[in-house]
Amino acid sequence: MYIKEAKARVIKNSRKERTIEVKFKTNNGFFICSAPSGKSKGKNEVIDFNKKGVRYSVKLANIFLKILKNKEVKFSSIEDLRKIEFILKEFEKNNEILGGNVWYAIEGALLKAAAKEKNIELYEFLLNGEKPKIPLPIGNAVGGGLHTRTHKKKPDFQEFLFIAKEEKIQKAISKNILAYFDVRLKIRWKEKKFFLKTNDENALICSLSNHEILEIMRDVAKHFDLRIGVDVASSNFFDGKNYDYKNKRFLRSREEQNEYISDLISEFDLFYVEDPFHEEDFLSFSSLLNFVKKNKKDCLIVGDDLTTTNLERVKKAYYQKSINAVIIKPNQIGSLLEVKKVCDFCKKNNIKIIFSHRSGETKDNILADYAVGFGADFIKTGLYGKERLVKLKRLIDIQKRIHKV
Ligand code: PGA
Ligand code: ZN
Fold first, then answer.
1. Which residues are catalytic?
2. Which DSSP symbol is given to 37?
3. Whole-structure pTM value
4. Which pick of 76, 292, 314, 391 has the fewest CB atoms within 10 Å?
5. Beta strands at 136-143 and 71-72: parallel, antiparallel or unpaired
6. Proportion of the chain above pLDDT 70, given as a percent
7. Is residue 357 in contact with ligand 1, taking CB distance under 6 Å?
Protein backbone atom coordinates (compact mmCIF):
# COMPACT_ATOMS: atom_id res chain seq x y z
CA MET A 1 0.00 0.00 0.00
CA TYR A 2 1.07 3.56 -0.59
CA ILE A 3 1.19 5.88 2.44
CA LYS A 4 0.24 9.38 1.29
CA GLU A 5 -0.04 10.99 4.69
CA ALA A 6 0.76 9.99 8.28
CA LYS A 7 -0.03 12.18 11.27
CA ALA A 8 -0.47 12.00 15.03
CA ARG A 9 -2.48 14.32 17.26
CA VAL A 10 -3.51 14.68 20.87
CA ILE A 11 -7.07 13.67 21.80
CA LYS A 12 -8.78 13.09 25.17
CA ASN A 13 -9.75 9.69 26.55
CA SER A 14 -12.85 8.88 28.63
CA ARG A 15 -11.07 10.14 31.78
CA LYS A 16 -10.34 13.42 29.96
CA GLU A 17 -6.63 12.67 29.94
CA ARG A 18 -4.53 13.36 26.87
CA THR A 19 -3.70 10.46 24.61
CA ILE A 20 -2.53 9.86 21.03
CA GLU A 21 -4.49 9.32 17.81
CA VAL A 22 -2.67 8.31 14.62
CA LYS A 23 -4.11 8.74 11.15
CA PHE A 24 -2.79 7.28 7.89
CA LYS A 25 -3.97 8.24 4.44
CA THR A 26 -3.25 5.53 1.89
CA ASN A 27 -4.41 4.79 -1.65
CA ASN A 28 -7.47 3.17 0.04
CA GLY A 29 -8.64 5.98 2.35
CA PHE A 30 -8.10 7.08 5.96
CA PHE A 31 -7.21 4.76 8.84
CA ILE A 32 -7.27 5.93 12.43
CA CYS A 33 -6.28 4.36 15.73
CA SER A 34 -6.12 5.83 19.24
CA ALA A 35 -4.57 4.43 22.41
CA PRO A 36 -6.28 3.85 25.78
CA SER A 37 -4.58 4.43 29.16
CA GLY A 38 -4.53 2.48 32.40
CA LYS A 39 -4.77 3.83 35.93
CA SER A 40 -4.08 0.66 37.85
CA LYS A 41 -0.96 -0.20 35.86
CA GLY A 42 1.39 -3.10 36.46
CA LYS A 43 4.88 -1.93 37.28
CA ASN A 44 6.27 -4.18 34.56
CA GLU A 45 4.31 -2.55 31.76
CA VAL A 46 6.30 -0.61 29.16
CA ILE A 47 6.04 3.14 29.70
CA ASP A 48 3.04 4.52 27.86
CA PHE A 49 4.41 7.89 26.79
CA ASN A 50 7.77 9.64 26.82
CA LYS A 51 8.32 10.99 30.32
CA LYS A 52 8.16 14.53 28.97
CA GLY A 53 4.43 14.01 28.42
CA VAL A 54 1.79 13.15 25.86
CA ARG A 55 2.19 16.33 23.81
CA TYR A 56 5.91 15.74 23.53
CA SER A 57 5.36 12.08 22.56
CA VAL A 58 2.96 13.15 19.84
CA LYS A 59 5.54 15.63 18.55
CA LEU A 60 8.11 12.82 18.41
CA ALA A 61 5.54 10.53 16.76
CA ASN A 62 5.04 13.11 14.01
CA ILE A 63 8.79 13.21 13.37
CA PHE A 64 8.79 9.42 13.17
CA LEU A 65 5.74 9.30 10.88
CA LYS A 66 7.53 11.48 8.31
CA ILE A 67 9.76 8.46 7.65
CA LEU A 68 6.71 6.51 6.45
CA LYS A 69 5.19 9.31 4.38
CA ASN A 70 5.21 8.91 0.58
CA LYS A 71 6.37 5.32 0.87
CA GLU A 72 5.12 2.09 -0.63
CA VAL A 73 4.86 -0.44 2.22
CA LYS A 74 4.37 -4.14 1.60
CA PHE A 75 1.99 -5.50 4.19
CA SER A 76 0.62 -8.95 3.56
CA SER A 77 0.47 -10.32 7.11
CA ILE A 78 1.04 -9.15 10.68
CA GLU A 79 4.63 -10.41 10.37
CA ASP A 80 5.31 -7.41 8.13
CA LEU A 81 5.13 -5.27 11.28
CA ARG A 82 8.66 -6.51 11.89
CA LYS A 83 10.04 -3.92 9.45
CA ILE A 84 8.06 -1.12 11.09
CA GLU A 85 9.15 -2.20 14.57
CA PHE A 86 12.75 -2.25 13.39
CA ILE A 87 12.44 1.38 12.27
CA LEU A 88 10.62 2.28 15.53
CA LYS A 89 13.43 0.76 17.60
CA GLU A 90 16.11 2.50 15.53
CA PHE A 91 14.25 5.78 15.96
CA GLU A 92 14.06 5.32 19.72
CA LYS A 93 17.74 4.39 19.84
CA ASN A 94 18.76 7.52 17.94
CA ASN A 95 16.26 9.89 19.51
CA GLU A 96 14.07 9.30 22.55
CA ILE A 97 11.52 6.79 23.80
CA LEU A 98 8.16 7.18 22.05
CA GLY A 99 6.23 5.00 24.52
CA GLY A 100 3.97 1.92 24.25
CA ASN A 101 0.89 3.99 23.47
CA VAL A 102 2.59 5.57 20.46
CA TRP A 103 3.54 2.14 19.14
CA TYR A 104 0.00 0.94 19.81
CA ALA A 105 -1.66 3.73 17.80
CA ILE A 106 0.81 3.54 14.89
CA GLU A 107 0.57 -0.24 14.59
CA GLY A 108 -3.23 -0.25 14.96
CA ALA A 109 -3.73 2.32 12.20
CA LEU A 110 -1.27 0.49 9.95
CA LEU A 111 -3.00 -2.86 10.49
CA LYS A 112 -6.38 -1.32 9.65
CA ALA A 113 -4.89 0.06 6.42
CA ALA A 114 -3.24 -3.27 5.59
CA ALA A 115 -6.54 -5.16 6.00
CA LYS A 116 -8.30 -2.68 3.71
CA GLU A 117 -5.57 -3.09 1.09
CA LYS A 118 -6.53 -6.79 0.98
CA ASN A 119 -10.21 -5.86 1.12
CA ILE A 120 -10.82 -7.89 4.25
CA GLU A 121 -11.71 -7.08 7.85
CA LEU A 122 -8.95 -6.53 10.39
CA TYR A 123 -9.83 -9.66 12.40
CA GLU A 124 -9.61 -11.71 9.16
CA PHE A 125 -6.24 -10.18 8.36
CA LEU A 126 -4.99 -11.23 11.80
CA LEU A 127 -6.52 -14.70 11.64
CA ASN A 128 -4.73 -15.32 8.35
CA GLY A 129 -6.98 -18.21 7.35
CA GLU A 130 -7.64 -19.58 10.83
CA LYS A 131 -11.23 -20.17 11.87
CA PRO A 132 -12.78 -17.27 13.81
CA LYS A 133 -14.35 -17.68 17.23
CA ILE A 134 -16.30 -15.04 19.15
CA PRO A 135 -15.00 -14.37 22.68
CA LEU A 136 -17.45 -14.35 25.59
CA PRO A 137 -18.05 -10.95 27.16
CA ILE A 138 -16.95 -10.15 30.70
CA GLY A 139 -18.69 -7.00 31.98
CA ASN A 140 -17.59 -4.73 34.80
CA ALA A 141 -20.70 -3.99 36.91
CA VAL A 142 -19.48 -2.55 40.24
CA GLY A 143 -16.16 -0.87 40.91
CA GLY A 144 -13.82 0.14 43.70
CA GLY A 145 -10.08 0.57 44.11
CA LEU A 146 -8.16 3.05 41.97
CA HIS A 147 -10.93 3.39 39.38
CA THR A 148 -13.23 4.97 41.96
CA ARG A 149 -11.18 7.93 43.11
CA THR A 150 -14.09 10.22 43.87
CA HIS A 151 -15.35 8.16 46.82
CA LYS A 152 -13.68 7.37 50.10
CA LYS A 153 -15.86 4.49 51.22
CA LYS A 154 -15.86 1.90 48.46
CA PRO A 155 -15.18 -1.81 48.02
CA ASP A 156 -11.50 -2.78 48.15
CA PHE A 157 -11.71 -4.95 45.06
CA GLN A 158 -11.41 -3.01 41.82
CA GLU A 159 -14.03 -4.81 39.71
CA PHE A 160 -17.07 -7.03 40.18
CA LEU A 161 -17.76 -8.82 36.95
CA PHE A 162 -20.46 -10.74 35.13
CA ILE A 163 -19.30 -13.42 32.74
CA ALA A 164 -21.69 -14.67 30.09
CA LYS A 165 -21.97 -18.35 29.26
CA GLU A 166 -21.80 -19.87 25.80
CA GLU A 167 -24.53 -18.38 23.65
CA LYS A 168 -25.07 -15.90 20.85
CA ILE A 169 -22.98 -12.82 21.49
CA GLN A 170 -25.89 -10.42 21.24
CA LYS A 171 -27.80 -12.32 23.91
CA ALA A 172 -24.71 -12.67 26.08
CA ILE A 173 -24.05 -8.92 25.96
CA SER A 174 -27.64 -7.97 26.67
CA LYS A 175 -27.78 -10.36 29.63
CA ASN A 176 -24.67 -8.72 31.11
CA ILE A 177 -26.22 -5.28 30.62
CA LEU A 178 -29.58 -6.28 32.11
CA ALA A 179 -27.77 -7.79 35.07
CA TYR A 180 -25.89 -4.50 35.52
CA PHE A 181 -29.15 -2.56 35.78
CA ASP A 182 -30.57 -5.13 38.16
CA VAL A 183 -27.54 -4.75 40.42
CA ARG A 184 -28.07 -1.00 40.30
CA LEU A 185 -31.61 -1.45 41.61
CA LYS A 186 -30.53 -3.82 44.34
CA ILE A 187 -27.73 -1.54 45.55
CA ARG A 188 -30.26 1.26 45.70
CA TRP A 189 -32.44 -0.79 48.04
CA LYS A 190 -29.53 -1.59 50.28
CA GLU A 191 -27.75 1.74 50.36
CA LYS A 192 -29.74 4.91 51.03
CA LYS A 193 -26.96 7.23 49.87
CA PHE A 194 -26.49 5.50 46.51
CA PHE A 195 -26.48 8.23 43.87
CA LEU A 196 -26.31 6.12 40.72
CA LYS A 197 -22.81 7.40 40.05
CA THR A 198 -20.33 5.44 37.96
CA ASN A 199 -16.54 5.25 37.93
CA ASP A 200 -13.83 5.41 35.24
CA GLU A 201 -15.08 2.24 33.55
CA ASN A 202 -18.74 3.17 34.07
CA ALA A 203 -19.07 0.57 36.80
CA LEU A 204 -21.40 1.42 39.70
CA ILE A 205 -20.00 3.27 42.69
CA CYS A 206 -21.24 2.30 46.14
CA SER A 207 -19.95 2.03 49.69
CA LEU A 208 -20.86 -1.63 50.22
CA SER A 209 -18.19 -4.14 51.18
CA ASN A 210 -16.80 -6.84 48.86
CA HIS A 211 -18.99 -9.38 50.60
CA GLU A 212 -22.20 -7.37 50.32
CA ILE A 213 -21.67 -6.73 46.63
CA LEU A 214 -20.90 -10.38 45.94
CA GLU A 215 -24.15 -11.36 47.65
CA ILE A 216 -26.08 -9.07 45.29
CA MET A 217 -24.11 -10.23 42.26
CA ARG A 218 -24.72 -13.88 43.12
CA ASP A 219 -28.50 -13.36 43.25
CA VAL A 220 -28.57 -11.42 40.02
CA ALA A 221 -26.29 -13.90 38.24
CA LYS A 222 -28.58 -16.74 39.24
CA HIS A 223 -31.56 -14.95 37.76
CA PHE A 224 -29.80 -14.27 34.43
CA ASP A 225 -27.83 -17.52 34.33
CA LEU A 226 -24.47 -15.74 34.41
CA ARG A 227 -21.20 -16.39 36.21
CA ILE A 228 -19.44 -13.91 38.45
CA GLY A 229 -15.87 -12.87 39.13
CA VAL A 230 -13.62 -10.16 40.53
CA ASP A 231 -10.52 -8.20 39.65
CA VAL A 232 -8.88 -7.87 43.06
CA ALA A 233 -6.09 -5.65 41.62
CA SER A 234 -4.40 -6.38 44.94
CA SER A 235 -1.06 -4.68 44.19
CA ASN A 236 -2.91 -1.41 44.80
CA PHE A 237 -3.59 -2.20 48.46
CA PHE A 238 -0.56 -4.35 49.25
CA ASP A 239 1.65 -2.38 51.62
CA GLY A 240 4.78 -4.43 51.04
CA LYS A 241 3.89 -6.94 53.74
CA ASN A 242 0.13 -7.17 54.12
CA TYR A 243 -3.06 -6.56 52.19
CA ASP A 244 -4.50 -3.47 53.78
CA TYR A 245 -8.31 -3.64 53.51
CA LYS A 246 -10.22 -0.47 54.27
CA ASN A 247 -13.84 -1.66 53.88
CA LYS A 248 -14.14 -3.51 56.19
CA ARG A 249 -10.86 -2.68 57.92
CA PHE A 250 -8.61 -5.71 58.04
CA LEU A 251 -4.90 -6.37 57.60
CA ARG A 252 -4.36 -9.71 55.85
CA SER A 253 -1.01 -11.45 55.60
CA ARG A 254 -0.09 -13.38 52.45
CA GLU A 255 -1.49 -16.59 53.97
CA GLU A 256 -4.65 -14.88 55.18
CA GLN A 257 -5.19 -13.36 51.74
CA ASN A 258 -4.91 -16.85 50.25
CA GLU A 259 -7.45 -18.19 52.70
CA TYR A 260 -9.80 -15.25 52.17
CA ILE A 261 -9.79 -15.59 48.37
CA SER A 262 -10.17 -19.40 48.53
CA ASP A 263 -13.17 -18.95 50.83
CA LEU A 264 -14.74 -16.42 48.45
CA ILE A 265 -14.27 -18.81 45.52
CA SER A 266 -16.10 -21.52 47.47
CA GLU A 267 -18.80 -19.34 49.00
CA PHE A 268 -19.73 -17.43 45.85
CA ASP A 269 -18.78 -19.98 43.24
CA LEU A 270 -16.47 -17.44 41.61
CA PHE A 271 -15.61 -18.28 38.03
CA TYR A 272 -12.97 -15.59 37.65
CA VAL A 273 -10.35 -14.11 39.98
CA GLU A 274 -7.85 -11.58 38.59
CA ASP A 275 -4.69 -10.47 40.41
CA PRO A 276 -5.62 -11.88 43.84
CA PHE A 277 -2.00 -11.34 44.98
CA HIS A 278 0.50 -8.59 44.34
CA GLU A 279 2.34 -8.46 41.05
CA GLU A 280 5.51 -10.33 42.10
CA ASP A 281 3.92 -13.10 44.16
CA PHE A 282 3.90 -15.94 41.60
CA LEU A 283 4.00 -18.47 44.46
CA SER A 284 0.73 -17.43 46.10
CA PHE A 285 -0.94 -17.55 42.69
CA SER A 286 0.35 -21.15 42.39
CA SER A 287 -1.09 -22.22 45.72
CA LEU A 288 -4.46 -20.70 44.84
CA LEU A 289 -4.47 -22.44 41.45
CA ASN A 290 -3.58 -25.64 43.23
CA PHE A 291 -6.56 -25.16 45.57
CA VAL A 292 -8.83 -24.64 42.55
CA LYS A 293 -7.56 -27.77 40.83
CA LYS A 294 -7.62 -29.95 43.94
CA ASN A 295 -11.18 -28.96 44.75
CA LYS A 296 -12.29 -29.20 41.12
CA LYS A 297 -13.53 -25.61 41.06
CA ASP A 298 -14.41 -24.15 37.70
CA CYS A 299 -12.45 -20.96 38.28
CA LEU A 300 -10.00 -18.93 36.24
CA ILE A 301 -6.98 -17.58 38.11
CA VAL A 302 -6.04 -14.63 35.96
CA GLY A 303 -2.82 -12.64 35.67
CA ASP A 304 -2.92 -8.98 34.69
CA ASP A 305 -0.45 -6.88 36.71
CA LEU A 306 1.35 -10.20 37.29
CA THR A 307 1.96 -10.85 33.60
CA THR A 308 1.59 -7.43 31.83
CA THR A 309 1.25 -9.01 28.34
CA ASN A 310 4.95 -9.83 28.58
CA LEU A 311 6.00 -13.20 27.13
CA GLU A 312 8.71 -13.83 29.71
CA ARG A 313 6.35 -13.15 32.61
CA VAL A 314 3.56 -15.24 31.06
CA LYS A 315 6.03 -18.11 30.61
CA LYS A 316 7.18 -17.77 34.21
CA ALA A 317 3.57 -17.80 35.42
CA TYR A 318 2.84 -20.86 33.29
CA TYR A 319 5.90 -22.86 34.38
CA GLN A 320 5.25 -22.00 38.04
CA LYS A 321 1.59 -23.07 37.58
CA SER A 322 0.43 -19.65 38.79
CA ILE A 323 -2.37 -18.99 36.30
CA ASN A 324 -4.81 -20.68 33.96
CA ALA A 325 -5.85 -17.45 32.22
CA VAL A 326 -4.22 -14.20 31.22
CA ILE A 327 -5.27 -10.62 30.52
CA ILE A 328 -4.01 -9.16 27.26
CA LYS A 329 -3.79 -5.39 27.02
CA PRO A 330 -1.80 -4.61 23.89
CA ASN A 331 -0.54 -1.26 25.16
CA GLN A 332 1.01 -2.92 28.23
CA ILE A 333 3.69 -4.11 25.81
CA GLY A 334 3.22 -1.75 22.82
CA SER A 335 4.19 -4.25 20.11
CA LEU A 336 1.42 -6.22 18.38
CA LEU A 337 4.00 -8.82 17.36
CA GLU A 338 4.69 -9.43 21.05
CA VAL A 339 0.93 -9.69 21.66
CA LYS A 340 0.77 -12.38 18.98
CA LYS A 341 3.65 -14.30 20.57
CA VAL A 342 1.93 -14.23 23.97
CA CYS A 343 -1.37 -15.41 22.46
CA ASP A 344 0.33 -18.20 20.50
CA PHE A 345 2.05 -19.38 23.68
CA CYS A 346 -1.24 -19.33 25.61
CA LYS A 347 -3.13 -21.24 22.93
CA LYS A 348 -0.41 -23.90 22.79
CA ASN A 349 -0.46 -24.31 26.57
CA ASN A 350 -4.18 -24.08 27.19
CA ILE A 351 -4.11 -20.77 29.04
CA LYS A 352 -7.37 -18.87 28.51
CA ILE A 353 -6.96 -15.50 26.77
CA ILE A 354 -8.89 -12.41 27.89
CA PHE A 355 -8.52 -9.23 25.83
CA SER A 356 -9.20 -6.22 28.00
CA HIS A 357 -10.09 -2.56 27.62
CA ARG A 358 -8.34 -0.01 29.87
CA SER A 359 -9.93 2.29 32.38
CA GLY A 360 -9.20 5.40 30.27
CA GLU A 361 -10.70 4.36 26.94
CA THR A 362 -11.20 5.96 23.53
CA LYS A 363 -13.99 5.41 21.03
CA ASP A 364 -11.80 3.12 18.95
CA ASN A 365 -13.33 -0.36 18.52
CA ILE A 366 -10.11 -2.12 17.48
CA LEU A 367 -10.12 -4.23 20.67
CA ALA A 368 -12.95 -6.38 19.25
CA ASP A 369 -10.97 -7.14 16.09
CA TYR A 370 -7.88 -7.92 18.15
CA ALA A 371 -9.85 -10.25 20.42
CA VAL A 372 -11.29 -12.24 17.49
CA GLY A 373 -8.14 -11.97 15.38
CA PHE A 374 -5.84 -13.30 18.10
CA GLY A 375 -8.26 -16.06 19.14
CA ALA A 376 -9.34 -14.77 22.57
CA ASP A 377 -11.69 -16.78 24.77
CA PHE A 378 -13.08 -13.68 26.53
CA ILE A 379 -13.24 -9.91 26.13
CA LYS A 380 -13.45 -7.66 29.20
CA THR A 381 -15.11 -4.24 28.92
CA GLY A 382 -17.40 -1.92 30.81
CA LEU A 383 -21.13 -2.26 30.23
CA TYR A 384 -22.10 1.35 29.86
CA GLY A 385 -20.85 4.42 27.99
CA LYS A 386 -19.87 5.02 24.36
CA GLU A 387 -16.22 4.01 24.70
CA ARG A 388 -17.23 0.57 25.99
CA LEU A 389 -20.29 -0.04 23.83
CA VAL A 390 -18.52 0.59 20.50
CA LYS A 391 -16.35 -2.43 21.22
CA LEU A 392 -19.30 -4.66 22.05
CA LYS A 393 -21.19 -3.44 18.97
CA ARG A 394 -18.22 -4.29 16.79
CA LEU A 395 -18.21 -7.78 18.27
CA ILE A 396 -21.86 -8.23 17.27
CA ASP A 397 -21.01 -6.92 13.82
CA ILE A 398 -18.16 -9.44 13.52
CA GLN A 399 -20.44 -12.28 14.57
CA LYS A 400 -22.94 -11.28 11.86
CA ARG A 401 -20.18 -11.20 9.26
CA ILE A 402 -18.89 -14.60 10.27
CA HIS A 403 -22.33 -16.16 9.92
CA LYS A 404 -22.89 -14.63 6.50
CA VAL A 405 -19.80 -16.35 5.15
P1 PGA B 1 -6.35 -0.18 34.15
O2 PGA B 1 -7.14 -1.31 34.96
O3 PGA B 1 -6.86 -0.11 32.75
O4 PGA B 1 -6.63 1.06 34.95
O5 PGA B 1 -4.90 -0.56 34.21
C6 PGA B 1 -7.81 -2.37 34.39
C7 PGA B 1 -7.50 -3.64 35.12
O8 PGA B 1 -6.77 -3.65 36.13
O9 PGA B 1 -7.95 -4.71 34.68
ZN1 ZN C 1 -6.76 -5.97 36.27
1. 201, 329
2. B
3. 0.97
4. 76
5. unpaired
6. 100
7. no
